[in-house]
Design brief:
alpha/beta; five-stranded parallel sheet; three-stranded antiparallel sheet; 14 helices; about 45% helix; globular
């Protein structure tokens, strides 16, 4: 007699995601409600990577130790497929793990500040791996073989990555990340103590159910184009698209909750984001240094930049910003006439000084800086009409 065919009971995705969210809430205090939504969706998306064109990084960051970052990563570890905990792992080890025949890992990188922190150097190889692995088409090229018998081989880099660390991350990784800014628990904020021997099994049971649900909705999600909230475009849209697709497949109130979380966390990231160091320089020049003047000597520009409290200029690579570094940074940007921004002569009562003109910076301000109220420009006094504006 033929055994009856096995049937798989449909899994309620919305209810399952609620359970995943509640599991995080037992052990984590996130800074905002939107973070619980985002992390639960991220856990689920890790089971569906091949359905998406990209995968966002999940970043638990805080200014101080003891803020729950590593605990957040521990809970994610119990809920995601093939977790690989990495501390100080090399890029070579990671891309070999991703290309292994044992299956794509979910990389959980704790203490990421030891890799990208101020004393750790740039670690361009690892940064390149994390950036390339954001896209399904991402690969890392390496030479394989000995001596002159080498050949170039492409290693796939596409995999889910969650990180935890102090401070921040390189801009190229931050812009590819769901950012959870952790903070220490207040005295009235209580969580359940995490006991790995007990609670890991509970998380793994949820993980297995997530995997089962993912199998049921994979075809539905593959190629889906979720509607993005108004104003979420470009890189933030790339980051959130997989999570919104998961929310839409789950149904219930998850599509609405996911879009609300998306808008909130994208806005929070934009408030925290100062852009690249160059954009931060341009913005500080516009908003704090050259306010109300149409030109300013270099020495005054540097003094004003270094005096800004909430700015990096008093300690750039271990020393205050100087005229040479300022000149090098600004030459990367162009005037409206497509010429590098350079110092020009400014005649003052004390003689001719080198300095910068607002007119030369205006095009870069318009192209790179966030919007700012228009302010009238007035000349720096005292000025004389002759011998001013001559290129250095």
């Amino acid at each position: 007699m033929t055994a009856p065919a096995q049937t798989t009971e449909p899994i309620d995705g919305a209810a399952l995601l609620v359970e995943v969210e509640q599991f995080h809430r037992r052990f984590n205090v996130f800074p905002r409600e939107a973070a619980y939504v985002a992390v639960a969706l991220w856990d689920a998306h890790a089971h569906l990577l091949d359905a998406f064109d990209s995968t966002p990084r999940l970043a638990f960051l805080s200014p101080e130790p003891g803020s729950g970052k590593s605990r957040g990563l521990e809970i994610v570890e119990t809920l995601t497929p093939n977790p690989m905990v990495a501390v100080n792992a090399s890029a070579a080890a990671l891309f070999r793990a991703v290309s292994s025949s044992e299956g794509r890992p979910t990389i959980l990188f704790d203490e990421i500040d030891t890799v990208f922190g101020p004393k750790a150097g740039d670690n361009e190889e690892l940064r390149g791996f994390l950036n390339a692995g954001h896209r399904r088409s991402g690969v890392t090229y390496r030479c394989i073989g000995d001596g002159g018998n080498q050949s170039v081989q492409a290693f796939p880099s596409y995999t889910a990555v969650a990180v935890a660390g102090l401070g921040s991350l390189p801009d190229t990784i931050l812009t590819r990340s769901i950012i959870i800014r952790m903070r220490r628990r207040a005295r009235n904020e209580k969580v359940e103590a995490f006991r790995q021997r007990i609670h890991e099994k509970e998380g793994n049971a949820l993980r297995d159910r997530l995997a089962g649900w993912a199998d049921q909705v994979r075809e539905q999600i593959t190629g889906a184009w979720p509607d993005m909230p108004e104003g979420v475009t470009d890189r933030p849209a790339d980051v959130w698209e997989p999570l919104l697709a998961v929310a839409d497949a789950a149904g219930g109130d998850w599509p609405a909750r996911a879009r609300k979380a998306c808008v909130e966390l994208v806005a929070a990231a934009q408030v925290d984001d100062k852009g690249s160091l160059g954009i931060r320089l341009l913005t500080d020049l516009r908003d704090h240094v050259m306010v109300g003047v149409d030109r300013l000597p270099t020495i005054a520009v540097i003094d004003r930049l270094n005096a800004l409290d909430d700015a990096p200029w008093a300690d750039v690579g271990g020393r205050p910003l100087d005229s040479r570094r300022l000149s090098k940074m600004l030459r990367e940007y162009m005037t409206g006439d497509n010429e590098p921004i350079v110092t020009r002569n400014i005649r003052t009562a004390g003689g001719i000084l080198k300095g910068y003109f607002a007119a030369d910076l205006a095009d870069a301000w318009a192209r790179y800086c966030p919007p700012s109220p228009q302010q009238a420009l007035h000349p720096l006094h005292p000025l004389h009409p002759s011998s001013e504006g001559v290129p250095a």
